[in-house]
Specification:
Blueprint (H helix, E strand, L loop, with lengths): L1 H6 L5 H14 L38 H6 L4
């Protein structure tokens, strides 16, 4: 958790838990993790991981809080 807190910008912190749930659903799957596309492989503690190199990051645009309210996210 502390490793993630260090790398997640404060403006994205309130969305981070949703991203981790989705990460587990689509990348770090229990039966077959997709480590080559994992962006947190360098801080992963899983015994099953296949790489220590994280996938390249994609630059995110700053969050627009008005968009969140428009779609009902609080």
């Amino acid at each position: 958790e502390q490793g993630l807190i260090k790398v997640i910008p404060a403006e994205y912190m309130r969305h981070a838990h949703h991203w981790l749930i989705l990460h587990g659903r689509y990348v770090c799957k229990a039966r077959k993790p997709d480590c080559p596309v994992c962006v947190i492989a360098d801080i992963c503690k899983s015994k099953e991981k296949t790489t220590d190199l994280p996938a390249p990051l994609i630059e995110l645009a700053p969050l627009d809080e008005t968009e969140d309210r428009a779609i009902g996210v609080s």
